Each structure stands twice: as structure tokens, then as C-alpha cells.
Amino acid sequence: MNDHDWLTLACELARSCPPSETAFSVGVIVVAHGGKEMARGFSRESDPLDHAEEAALAKIDPADPRLPTATVYSSLEPCGKRKSRPQACARLIVGSGIRRVVMAWREPDLFVEGRGAEVLSAAGVVVVEMPELADLARKPNAHLVP
Fold first, then answer.
1. 7, 57, 68, 104: which sits with the fewest CB atoms below 10 Å from its CB?
2. Where do the CMP/dCMP-type deaminase domain residues begin and end (predicted)?
């Protein structure tokens, strides 16, 4: 599979999120170099405060040697600020050692000022935006952002 295929799956995974009026529905898939899926997660997967990146990364051993060459596929830009937990998703990704993120949609400034892509880039993480999939990422969030 290629970036487009993995990101499409992440966008579709966002439909699994329990509905919320105070948070976006996001899907994430972490893929090792070579194309093997390492983990997936979605917003509010096991806790009402879970973000998708957080849920996926929690399923991976932090010592996994594949992390530096893995890619995070996220339907929404990883958050750069967070109200509900001390670590924003962009910081969790940087801390994991992952050096590549592919995203479909920039986080609107609805709840917090996003800017996760800037946090990632400043830390040396390659950020690829695929705006052709933004509409698919917006669908499970249509009640928040028409």
C-alpha cells in the first residue's frame, strides 16, 4: 500500500470514534518502513480523553527499533496544544522517535490553536499533507465544522 491508501484507511477509522461535541474524531495508523502495520487508534477509543495518536502509540513498545523509520498516518493534524492532558500528540510523536507524519486535514482552531505540523517540523519530523483526502477526514466531524 502507498501513502494515499494508508491515509484513506486512517480517515475511515475516524468513523469508529464515539461522537463528541468537544473533540474531533480522528483515525491514526502507524506503519513500519516496509509497509507492516504496527498499531492503529482512534479518538476516545478506550477513554473519553484519548486522542487517536495517543491510543495508537500506547500499543507500541517504546523500545521498538522500527519507530524511527515508521510513519504516522493521521486523518487530522496531530495536536500541537492540548487542554485535557499534559502532552500534545505532536510532542508524543516526537518523543516516540517517529520521523514521518502523513495527514489529511489541518486542525481547525475550534478548540485550541493547532499548529502540530509546525511542532513536528521544528523537531525534524517530515510532515506530508494530502489535502485531497481532507473531505474524507472532515466527514465524521461535520457536526463540528460544516
1. 68
2. 1-118
